[in-house]
Design brief:
two-stranded antiparallel sheet, mainly alpha, 2 domains, about 240 residues, about 10% strand
């Protein structure tokens, strides 16, 4: 699974885990099976009811509409996912990780005909492999990509830190954060330390202390380090 990095206007690095080409192909095949199942069930019901709709093209057009709009509707109303994508734990996002607008979903759906349908997926595969950001042509036009929601289980990406048995916590206010929020705080903190980016640590310290409604007793680096350790201490007591 590849990844790429985005620098926000606040100089905060966001790492995106790009969905693998295999995951996307399997997700598409699952969605294709869902569409096929829809038509089989619809035709079965028509046959059971004894309806003769041989040349009623308007009816067949309406019957085909859910399949035609399948990807657009699912992704728009299910946070960038389809049944296939949800099964493979992948979803459509904007390049900065935020949720796309309807216009983004519409653009990538319109180009789905070129990327996937007419070219049997060939154009999409080549674009994804060469682009480096998991984008087919529709994604490039819509400024979107498809990421994996599976998290790599590296220790530095978790909230866990080693604390001694006689550790004394200072900030009980850390319990306002969730595990996911603390994981993000730790990730930003560790990346900033690794890149010796003191400005990001200062901004992070100011943001965290503001949310906790406290005045730090330490310098920014020591304060954020203390917050992470305190969170581990208090959550281990639960």
């Amino acid at each position: 699974m590849d990844n790429f990095q985005i620098e926000t206007a606040q100089n905060v690095s966001i790492h995106q885990n790009v969905a693998g080409i295999g995951e996307r192909i399997l997700a598409y095949l699952i969605d294709a099976l869902v569409i096929i199942a829809y038509f089989i069930i619809a035709l079965f019901l028509i046959n059971v009811m004894g309806l003769d709709l041989g040349d009623q093209w308007a009816f067949w057009g309406i019957l085909s509409l859910p399949a035609f709009l399948y990807f657009l509707l699912w992704e728009t109303f299910w946070d960038g996912k389809t049944p296939g994508k949800a099964t493979m734990k992948i979803k459509v996002v904007q390049l900065d990780g935020s949720r796309p607008a309807f216009s983004n979903y519409l653009i990538r759906w319109m180009l789905h005909l070129i990327d996937v349908t007419f070219a049997f997926g060939g154009v999409a595969v080549v674009a994804i492999l060469l682009g480096g950001k998991g984008q087919r042509l529709g994604d490039m036009a819509a400024a979107t990509t498809v990421i994996s929601e599976r998290q790599k289980t590296q220790l530095r990406q978790t909230i866990l830190v080693d604390i001694p048995d006689d550790y004394v916590a200072v900030y009980p206010q850390v319990t306002i954060f969730s595990d996911e929020e603390m994981r993000k705080i730790k990730t930003i903190y560790m990346d900033a330390r690794q890149n010796t980016n003191h400005d990001i640590i200062v901004e992070l310290s100011n943001k965290v202390s503001s949310l906790m409604d406290i005045t730090p007793q330490e310098k920014p680096l020591q304060f954020v380090d203390r917050v992470i350790a305190d969170y581990n201490y208090y959550t281990q007591q639960l």
